[in-house]
Structures are given as C-alpha cells and as structure tokens.
Design a protein that fits this description.
Shape: globular
CATH class of the largest domain: Alpha Beta
CATH topology of the largest domain: Rossmann fold
CATH architecture of the largest domain: 3-Layer(aba) Sandwich
Number of helices: 13
Structural class: alpha/beta
Strand content: 15-25%
Mean pLDDT: 96
Order of helices and strands: EHHEHEHEHEHHEHEHEHEHEEHH
CATH superfamily of the largest domain: Glycogen Phosphorylase B
Number of domains: 2
Helix content: 25-40%
Number of strands: 11
Largest sheet: 6 strands, parallel
Distance between the termini: 51 Å
Strand order of the largest sheet: 8-7-6-9-10-11
Oligomer: single chain
Radius of gyration: 20 Å
Length: about 325
Amino acid sequence: MLDLSEVKKLLIIRLSSLGDILLATPVIRALKNKYPEMQIDFLCKKGYKDVLINNPYLTNVFTFEKKGEKREALVARLIMEEYDLVADLQNNFHSRRINLKLPSDKIRFKKKSLLKFLLVKFKINLLKKAPQIPLRYAGIFKNLLLDDRGLDLISNNKSLLDSSTKYIGIAPGSRHFTKMWPKEYYIELCRLLNSAGFKIIVFGGRNDIDSCYEISSKVDESLNLCNSNNILQTVADMKKCQAVVCNDSGLMHAACAAGVPVLAFFGSTVKEFGFFPYNNQNKVLENHGLSCRPCTHIGRESCPRVHFKCMLGLTPQLAFQQLYHLLNF
C-alpha cells in the first residue's frame, strides 16, 4: 500500500447506509487534518449525499449508479480523476465492481463476517474487545489516528423550534422489526416525559411516517417532524432537543452527529458489532439476560423465538429512569 504521505488524491467508497456513512466521517476528518494537501472524494448512493454535502474535508461527493449509461459515465469520471488510492469501506459486490475498473491502489475494510457469524449462530463472542466501526475504518489506513471528536453532519438549515422549551426527541423507526422498541412503549415513555415537563418531538424518515403519526397522535402536545428523509432538517431540529430516544438506527447516529445525548435500545443486535453511539453522551439499554441475543447482526422481520423479550423487557419505566440519570433532570 502507498504511504499516505504520497497520496495526493483519495477516493473513499461507502455506498450506504446513513449510520455507516456517518461513522466514516471521523476518518475523513483525520485524513484531512493529517494530510491537508490531500484531495478526498467520496462515493455514496444518491439518497445519502446530503449527509456529506456540507462536509468541509471533502472535495467531491459522487453518487452511485447501479447499472446502465449513468454507471458507465460515473466510472469514466472516476477514472479521469486518477486517484492514487481507493479505500473501499463498503466491500460488497457493487463497490468491488467499481473498484476493479479503477487503475488505483486499493485497500478494503474487513467486515469480520466469520466472527459475527460465530456470535449470532453459536454465541461464541470473539468481538468483546473489537473497536467501534470508526476505529476499524481507520485501521485500514497506515498509522492513522482519530481525534476524540464525534461524527460530522453539517446542516445549515434553521429550526423553528423554540430554544426556551424543553424538548425530548424520539426516533421510533428502524429498517427491521427486531431493532424497534414497541410503539406502545414509546407512547408510555412520552407520557411520562410530558408529566416531567418535556415536550415531545417525533423524528423519522419516509418509511417511518405511519408509526410517527400513530405515536404523535396519542401523545398530548407532541410535534411530529417526520419528513421524507430530509436529514439536514432533522439534524437542525435534533440540536434543539435535550436528548433523543431511539433504536439502533441511522437516526441514532444522526443524533450523535448533532451532539445530543442519546438513549438507545438494542434488541436483536449488540454493541459488539461496533455500531453503538460514537464519542457522544449516551446510554444504551440492552437485555443482557437472554441467551438468544444476538439473533442477527443487521435485524430481522420477526422474533425467531416469538417472545421478543429483548425489547419487551426494556420497559418505559426503565427508560425513563435511565434518561433521568443521563440528563439529571
């Protein structure tokens, strides 16, 4: 591999998803701060471009096309850039297919797939000392150290929320059922927070519209700010909150990027996979008394044991108590 001091132009590939791309931002920052003359470009899916559009450490943000003339035009543009090094943080079929066409030195993120398989299938935990994902991303670069700051997501959007009001944000969505704390629990927690003098702000994206509406409609004076994946507006509004309560999801990492304390529920997944809140005030709630956890490393559409104790055992009262200690209200 090239010495990084010899790299004038670097392309980082991380196509998706929201949290994974956010977790790459400490690496971008560290590279630019150590090698200020280096041009750093990023390739991601179109839907995540806003995550990086205001990042001051990047020169270009390219968007990925799966097939057809647009993909060929993208590859031609990337070839023209004449990168010295391509860092593939995705390391899947699509990213490798692009990699093969670029005449550059290449390094790839190691996913530890076997260790995740052993933990999920046989509960053999060899990931107890595994670092968080940003540190693992940084590990593919020679002698790159991260600073002690958190994630970067720069939004110039303005929030209309009143700075004098005590807000608690909730983000009840996730891509998979087994990573979602029950809606009924969110509603009960919101009512407890109302009684403690907080106003509830509900956050979500395009896939969370129904659940956000249901929760908001059952919580007095709550404000539903679910939108069509406008992450820049969501982060601007999250900054007005005293805390965000969420699942193991992309919006958990967005709240961390906003610098807001986070209370997160981990059900079918565990912290050992490396995706827990990074360099941000947080409390992660897990049910450690279950032999069936983790049942997946990404999430499932139903509980394989039916009981769903990994989430049902994390009661609203427990969440309220932990939020009390997190914020000392």
